[in-house]
Amino acid sequence: MAIVTELVEYSHNGDTLEAFVALDDSKSVAPGVLVCHAWAGRSAHEEDVARRLAELGYVGIAVDVYGKGVHGETTEECNSLMTPFVEDRAMLQDRLKAALTTAQGLDYVQTDNIAVCGYCFGGLCALDMARSGAAVKGAASFHGLFMKPGNTDGQKISAKVIAFHGWDDPMAKPEDVMNFTQEMSAAEADWQLHAYGGTMHAFTNTQANDPDFGTVYSADADQRSWAAFKDFLREVLG
After folding, report:
1. pLDDT digits (tens, 9 = 90+) for 139-159
2. Of 197, 179, 76, 71, the residue nearest 127 (C-alpha)
């Protein structure tokens, strides 16, 4: 067994995008798991998640929302990159479906056996794939944003949903969490919420250490959420 990686280009609305793919070369075909990036763009963090998924026997596919080589460095740059997609969720959902279509076209991915996960902004992306009816079996949000897209009200959610949330996250406050749970129930989703006390935003990011901004790594929440995520994937993908 060896984990191999490749970069796969695809396009959407004239933009060139690039996914990072990791897989176990001993498997001819396996379930796929899309990994949606945080607000800075696809980074080493999402690529590492894709590799870890490959070690579990899945095809890890770190997708791209912003464009090939596009990456924010400062808070202002990251916010500028993310905002257009948060404000136009139909555009975001369409771009995510382009990533899904690309994954389905890979010879080594089981086209009808795909899940999605995401971190921070990527958590919102994962949830929007479930909300919009994309052909994913499960959607997992790690310290994600919960605000409703506004274009999926009244739709049922068929994908199973799980959210891993730091209770002290200033970017998703308790009232936002309650709104999310009510939304999921109204959509008749099979949903779970794992909330970690004393935990802020970005708790899976080992580089996060800015309590004033609300982003702090938590080894306990990181490990607990990954263990629960592995169970979730076994349930939805087999």
Report:
1. 999 999 999 999 999 999 999
2. 179
What is the CATH number for 13?
Answer: 3.40.50.1820
Question: Could you tell me the residue range of the domain that residue 231 belongs to?
Answer: 3-237
The 3-state DSSP class for residue 66 equals coil
| Alpha carbon distances (Å) from 200 to 116, 135, 146, 152 | 23, 31, 15, 28
Tell me: the pLDDT tens digits for 185-199? Answer: 999 999 999 999 999
- Lookup result for tokens 């995510």: 96
State pLDDT tens for residues 98-135.
999 999 999 999 999 999 999 999 999 999 999 999 99
Question: In 62-173, which ranges are continuous DSSP H helix?
Answer: 75-87, 89-104, 121-131
**Could you tell me if 58 and 233 are in contact, meaning their C-beta atoms sit under 8 angstroms apart?**
yes
Provide the domain count of the chain: 1
Q: What DSSP state is assigned to residue 109?
A: E
Check: pTM over 0.90? Answer yes or no. yes
Q: Alpha carbon 73 to chain centroid distance?
A: 20
DSSP state of 6: E
Q: What is the pLDDT of residues 79-104, one digit of tens each?
A: 999 999 999 999 999 999 999 999 99
